[in-house]
Specification:
mainly alpha
Length: 138
């Protein structure tokens, strides 16, 4: 695959991950909104969601290093292997970026209010945005 095809593939994967972040939160919130029970676990789930953002710090560091290595390997024989290493690192980072929103989806069952739910989902979206492939690699 050439560089343009790889970038297109990475872009498609990013959009799919965006769907995987948003669909569970929206679906669970819509389907189970009326069956919420007052619970004491809403705040611990929100705190767990906020703390899960810190999981993405080492993952982003690894992604950044893989991105730099891919940039250095451009137009060389090592470029395909660098793209594969970047893809592997990015997949792990996507999981870390998705954690706050997925915790928010589970926290719907603990009657987590709308504002914390939106905050956790937005934090996942912002972290996920960091994992877009920069234009410099095209």
């Amino acid at each position: 695959m050439n560089r343009a095809q790889v970038r297109r593939h990475f872009s498609i994967l990013w959009w799919w991950q965006l769907v995987l972040v948003l669909v569970p939160v929206i679906t669970i919130n819509v389907l189970f909104e009326s069956s919420r029970q007052p619970g004491v676990l809403a705040m611990p789930f929100f705190i767990a969601g906020m703390l899960s953002m810190f999981i993405s710090l080492p993952l982003f560091n690894a992604y950044k290093h893989a991105l730099i290595a891919t940039g250095k390997a451009r137009d060389s024989d090592a470029e395909p292997a660098a793209w594969q290493a970047l893809a592997k690192t990015r997949r792990k980072a996507f999981l870390g970026a998705s954690l706050p929103a997925w915790i928010a989806a589970v926290a719907v069952f603990t009657s987590l209010e709308a504002v914390p739910l939106i905050l956790l989902t937005l934090s996942s979206l912002v972290i996920l945005y960091l994992y877009r492939i920069p234009r410099q690699l095209s």
